[in-house]
């Protein structure tokens, strides 16, 4: 559990302590609850009203649909999703009422949190606070509000919300309603992630995780991935390679190409970074 006040502290050793769950982040809990409520109201709209947003194009500003990847699903998936690009250009829904106002404020507040976290990561690596932001063209970086809707499932042992995967963002923040379901792989075992009320779960490593379903109540989660500018290649940091006397273990790739890779059949049940590893030969 990481207090955001430590992350914004003037003391580098305290700033470097942030890791998984962030509290005192400055985003009002009432705003977080309003964002969850707005997304729930969208998912409860009649199918006819949601149909115009149904698309499979990766970078459409607004899209909704069912399941994880319709082209490659191999298990019974139990999930609807809504993805809205909020930065570098803000997009919004006109229905349900109030979604636009809530999502605009929420996206601004969460981007500020992600920016401070990225600064802390830079300093924890012995770099200038704005090193990663500059290298990744953070001012043009992608921010997505990705809401997931998991209704109560009559046979949860035969279905899953989202299969094991890794995220594509530099920093992903996540909130959820009072139903847990996020699991991470730790020591070859799946571990349920319990978050404190009002906190963000923060994923800044390429951690293997999945979403489970239950037979008692609807679960809603909102993941907010923040990434580089789409045309920016992500590469190992030269200063760190030189400092450690290492050679690069990963090839470079633009963020847009990396997102395409994650959405492709090649990434099904395989961590995306495995495709970027430099082979021994």
From TrEMBL:
GO molecular function: L-ascorbic acid binding; metal ion binding; oxidoreductase activity
Residue intervals of the Fe2OG dioxygenase domain: 140-228
One Pfam family here: 2OG-FeII_Oxy
PROSITE patterns reported for this sequence: FE2OG_OXY (PS51471)
SUPFAM superfamilies the record matches: Clavaminate synthase-like
Annotated keywords: Iron, Metal-binding, Oxidoreductase, Vitamin C
Superkingdom of the organism of origin: Eukaryota
InterPro entries registered for this protein in UniProt: DIOX_N, IPNS-like_FE2OG_OXY, IPNS-like_sf, Oxoglu/Fe-dep_dioxygenase_dom, Plant_2OG-oxidoreductases
Family according to the record: Belongs to the iron/ascorbate-dependent oxidoreductase family.
PANTHER family noted in UniProt: OXOGLUTARATE/IRON-DEPENDENT DIOXYGENASE
Descriptive protein name: Protein SRG1-like
Organism listed in the record: Pyrus ussuriensis x Pyrus communis
